[in-house]
């Protein structure tokens, strides 16, 4: 398995409130994470970093994930713990009041990937059946689309496009979407913050991911595309590729 992580402040924001990365547990399985912080003056970066650090530590202490049920339970329990830590920190610190973060995380094993998300950071898969968004945005405009009040085209330019209905750390409890998919040789997972998905179309994502570039070059190309289209937001992504174990390639 190979993976690459990239984050960029963008061309407008003064600070990068995104966090992310990919991490190994004790058996070498990967956990990919993207978190997009928000609120509380500059405390968005505090929330996203706390979410990342919490999951990274718990994952490092994990020996092995053998089944999809184990992966789903691990994500549920670990993310709920992170939610409590962020929420309680915000209650104690006035400058962090109201802070929260989106989160998309994927446990990647040799046979399956289990994805959890809160907010509007996304996970896509590209495999032999095509390119698909695996996560649902927990956003106002997505609810308006789902209820038929506006079209997908309207959603792209809606003035309240950035309103998130669900985030990590803003309430005592949090609802998490979790699903497991089969992960096969040459499949690609793309996790990203909305700084990428709001700027780069799915068609452009597909073209980049299908190119002959290395994973590193693909990540740079996607970030460059978002910046060239304005770069108004922080841009963060992780790409994970499953390879034949006989190739012996890891990163």
From TrEMBL:
Species: Cytobacillus depressus
Entries under SUPFAM superfamilies matching the protein: PP2C-like
Cofactor entry: Mn(2+)
Entries under SMART domains matching the protein: PP2C_SIG, PP2Cc
Keyword Hydrolase: yes
Keyword Transcription: no
CDD domains: PP2Cc
Protein's name according to its UniProt entry: protein-serine/threonine phosphatase
Keywords: Hydrolase, Manganese, Metal-binding, Protein phosphatase
Pfam families noted in UniProt: PP2C_2
């Amino acid at each position: 398995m190979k993976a690459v992580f990239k984050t960029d402040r963008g061309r407008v924001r003064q600070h990068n409130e995104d966090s992310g990365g990919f991490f190994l547990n004790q058996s070498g399985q990967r956990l990919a994470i993207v978190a997009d912080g928000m609120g509380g003056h500059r405390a968005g970066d505090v929330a996203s970093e706390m979410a990342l650090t919490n999951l990274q530590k718990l994952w490092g202490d994990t020996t092995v994930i053998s089944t999809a049920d184990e992966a789903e339970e691990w994500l549920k329990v670990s993310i709920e713990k992170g939610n409590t830590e962020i929420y309680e920190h915000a209650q104690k610190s006035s400058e962090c009041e109201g802070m929260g973060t989106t989160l998309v995380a994927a446990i990647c094993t040799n046979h399956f990937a289990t994805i959890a998300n809160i907010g509007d950071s996304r996970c896509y898969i590209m495999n032999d059946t095509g390119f698909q968004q695996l996560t649902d945005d927990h956003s106002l405009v997505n609810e308006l689309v789902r209820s038929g009040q506006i079209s997908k085209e309207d959603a792209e330019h809606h003035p309240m496009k950035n309103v998130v209905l669900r985030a990590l750390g803003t309430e005592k409890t949090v609802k998490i979407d979790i699903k497991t998919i089969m992960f096969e040789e040459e499949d690609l997972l793309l996790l990203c913050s909305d700084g990428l998905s709001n700027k780069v179309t799915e068609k452009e994502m597909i073209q980049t991911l299908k190119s002959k570039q290395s994973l590193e070059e693909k990540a740079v190309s996607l970030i460059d595309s978002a910046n060239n289209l304005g770069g108004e937001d922080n841009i963060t992504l992780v790409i994970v590729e499953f390879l034949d174990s006989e190739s012996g390639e890891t990163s």
